[in-house]
């Protein structure tokens, strides 16, 4: 969650901070607006270390990618990419009546590849996030697979969204 009004460059540091603690970084933006008809990097916002002159703050209803990564040239690369919707979060807060609390709601509903997750290296908060995300994937996708009676896909989804 975050208060309304931040620009992408302010959010970008939150994604990079764990890598910076290890002396690492990635050479691309963390996210961008998602357009239509092959206009993939659509404004008016972006989540990047570079601030554009015409950039808008993140606002309710915006669709954005969130895609941090890490690359070791000649060895490997890791990049997680989800498409998210910025929504207003209901509930009480003490930030003032002119401030909304926003949060990202996933639109990409694909489980993270379990074979690439080393659960012992994750904090309890990271595990909680992944388990919550996987529950959202299961709750959102499984009814369609049940309706289609696709038992193979349903079993795959069940296995790949089970708690860590």
TrEMBL record:
Peptidase M24 domain mapped to chain residues = 5-87
- What Pfam families does this protein's entry cite? Peptidase_M24, Peptidase_M24_C
> Which InterPro entries would you find in this protein's record?
Creatinase/aminopeptidase-like (IPR036005), Pept_M24 (IPR000994), Peptidase_M24_C (IPR032416), X-Pro_aminopeptidase_P (IPR050422)
**Top-level lineage group:** Eukaryota
Q: Which residues form the Peptidase M24 C-terminal domain?
A: 101-164
Q: Where in this chain does the entry annotate a coiled-coil region? A: none
Q: What is this protein called?
A: Peptidase M24 domain-containing protein
What organism does this protein naturally occur in? Guillardia theta (Cryptophyte)
The organism's lineage is: Eukaryota, Cryptophyceae, Pyrenomonadales, Geminigeraceae, Guillardia
């Amino acid at each position: 969650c975050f208060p309304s009004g931040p620009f992408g460059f302010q959010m970008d540091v939150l994604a990079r901070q764990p890598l910076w603690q290890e002396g690492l970084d990635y050479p691309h933006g963390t996210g961008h607006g998602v357009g239509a008809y092959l206009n993939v990097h659509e404004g008016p916002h972006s989540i990047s270390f570079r601030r554009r002159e015409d950039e808008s703050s993140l606002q309710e209803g915006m669709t954005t990618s969130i895609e941090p990564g890490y690359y070791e040239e000649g060895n490997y690369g890791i990049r997680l990419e989800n498409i998210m919707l910025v929504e207003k979060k209901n509930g009480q807060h003490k930030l003032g009546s002119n401030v909304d609390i926003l949060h990202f709601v996933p639109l990409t509903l694909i489980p993270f590849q379990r074979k690439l997750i080393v659960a012992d290296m994750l904090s309890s908060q990271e595990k909680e996030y992944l388990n919550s995300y996987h529950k959202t994937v299961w709750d959102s996708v499984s009814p369609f697979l049940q309706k289609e009676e696709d038992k193979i896909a349903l079993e795959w989804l069940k296995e790949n969204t089970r708690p860590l």
